[in-house]
Amino acid sequence: MHAGTVYMECHNQVAGIEYRNICTKYGLEVPRSGWKTPPKVVENSRVVIMWDFQIQTDKLVTAEILSESNIRKKEYDKLEKHQGLNEELEKDV
Question: Which PANTHER family does the UniProt entry name for this protein (predicted)?
């Protein structure tokens, strides 16, 4: 449960950076603080930015919810995947 909360906080911080970049690109007011939750909708004649909305799609889109066990499995998979690269790098040292 805690891992999901931490993941969401991390996700929102990165999304907040992108939000600020998009605001800058399209001439919208850029929030002064990167840590506050953006308004749900901001727009001008060129763009509409929506924050934290569900979007209905024609096809089912699934998202993998990260749990503690999923995170551990992903870490293991990445370590295993890159083991050969690690061995090659260690040879050059």
Answer: REVERSE TRANSCRIPTASE DOMAIN-CONTAINING PROTEIN
Report the alpha-carbon distance of residue 38 to residue 52 in Å, rounded. Answer: 9
Among residues 19, 14, 18, which one has the least CA distance to residue 41? 19
Three-class SS of residue 42?
strand
pTM, rounded to two decimals: 0.54
DSSP state of 26: T
The segments of the chain whose pLDDT lies below 50 read: none
Task: Give the C-alpha separation, 66 to 4, whole Å.
Answer: 6
Distances (CA, A) of 36 to 9, 31, 45: 12, 8, 25
Lookup: tokens for 13: 């911080």
Q: What are phi and psi of 40, to 5 degrees?
A: -60, -40
